Amino acid sequence: MSVGKQRPFPPTGAMQRSNTHLGLLPWQVRERRFQPSRLGRRGLDPDEVYAFLDRVAADMMALHAEITKQRQENLRIKVALRRWQSEQAEGGRR
């Protein structure tokens, strides 16, 4: 990938989690180091950095999707509980 060429974001296929790796753990993100850029350029290898960012983004998207799913399930349970409590309260008044 050339330095002057901007990479499209979000990457295509970012919505899909890869089966080739397990989810990232916080310590893996903290301890990740990148190789210096090749050909005597200063900085990090852009391809390596972008690949890692893709992986972090995919893991974050999976976590956010799971959080949303859990919140929806939590709301569904709360609504069902309130409905049940109302039915029980009405039944006790009769």
Binned, the helix content reads 55-70%
Instruction: Count the beta strands.
Output: 0
Order of helices and strands: HH
Rg over alpha carbons: 23 Å
The stretches of 5 or more residues where confidence is low (pLDDT under 50) are 1-6, 8-15
Give the overall pLDDT as a whole number: 78
Q: Which geometry do the CA atoms define?
A: rod-shaped
Summing up helix and strand content along with how strands pair, one would put the structural category as: mainly alpha
| Terminal CA distance | 75 Å
How many helices? The count is 2
Largest sheet: none
Strand-residue proportion:
under 5%
Question: Can you describe what's shown?
Answer:
It is rod-shaped and about 85 Å long. The protein has helices at residues 26-31, 46-93. It has two helices and no strands. Residues 1-6 and 8-15 have low confidence and may be disordered. It is mainly alpha-helical and 94 residues long.
List the helices and strands and how they pair.
Layout: H1 26-31, H2 46-93
Index terms:
94 residues; mainly alpha; 2 helices; rod-shaped
